[in-house]
Amino acid sequence: MRIAHVITRMIVGGAQENTLYNCQDLIRDFGDDVLLITGPSPGREGTLLDRTEHQVPVALAPHLVRNIYPWDDLRGYYEIKKILRDFRPDVVHTHSAKGGMLGRIAATSLRVPAVIHTVHGAPFHPYQSAAARNFFIACERYAAKRCHKMICVADAMTDLMVDAKVAPREKFVTIYSGMEVEPFLESGQWRDEMRQKLGYSDEHVVIGKIARLFHLKGHEYVLAAARRVIDAVPNVRFLWIGDGLLHDKYVEEINAAGLTDYFQLVGLVPPTEIPRYCGAMDILVHASLREGLARALPQALLSGKPAVSFDVDGAREVVVTDETGELIPPKDVDRLADALIRLASDAALRQRLGEEGRRRAAQVFPHRHMTAEIRKTYEQVLADKP
């Protein structure tokens, strides 16, 4: 099978890791001929293609960029179309808003037999202006008519898209994002080494957050809750993993709040190192305001760490209060602080929730299982073609 994946950029992020695993598995497990089409990945987020021995053929579309620039978008469309015409795929699988829009239009114009799109996270959300939200919904409705099937990384994404009348429910299928689960299951072996490296002693309770330092990722809510948490549990420490354009702003706010001794920002970490950092944590906090299903949540659970998360999108499908962690209403800083204090104060509770989270996540998130399900979707669409 000849399969082209199209994604706007290959920064260090969940959707990008998902896509790269999918490409690698298709080549290794099924012997497929795979091409990854992507735009440039500038900025502080880093790029997966520089950091991994990915062994996936890549074609660069120089004008495929994240922001909307009509002239560049038109050029990006023709770049994608030329690459697809030369590659002659049986399947085009698109990801992200811009890559999804341009890729689907190009694939349809070339009469590609199977066109699939994955919704990693909806491009429309409640924190946009009404005009912007309506524009992105209209774009998604248009693009949805130019593919045969849509994969969502959580049932919540399907509900969101159906409620917005992007496409009928029968056009969607849920396939959870996959990852390399073994390093997370074994992350405890690095705990002592990593905590020593990071300067934590046995008495410290480390609350980790894995996310780009970017808008809507919710770092400000963790920072707002931190003073109460520290006053109640003075041995708490906060470990932030990730980089982005808000880095300097958050550093200034941490310093201004007098919390420098309690926060450590380690910057961008290669994906292969994330299990080691999870091993050093005791709790994961996830305060994003919009997310399909954040990879950090199953990663923490696989590592045996309970998660405290805002109740957005797919979070409730892995974080269950008093079973694997605690769900909090979005932006509720008081409830966030209460949950972190409760877990930071009770090692036995952390262990119980962490063990249950590990048991559940280990059954669902292996990336080769994800790829097998995705390939079944390709086969079904191709089999339904006249």
Automatic annotation (TrEMBL):
Q: Which Gene3D superfamilies match?
A: Glycogen Phosphorylase B
**Glycosyl transferase family domain segment(s):** 191-360
SUPFAM superfamilies hit by this protein: UDP-Glycosyltransferase/glycogen phosphorylase (SSF53756)
User: Where would I find the Glycosyltransferase subfamily 4-like N-terminal domain in this sequence?
Assistant: 13-181
Q: What would you give as a GO molecular function for this chain, any one? A: glycosyltransferase activity
The protein's name is Glycosyltransferase family 4 protein
Regions that span the bilayer? none
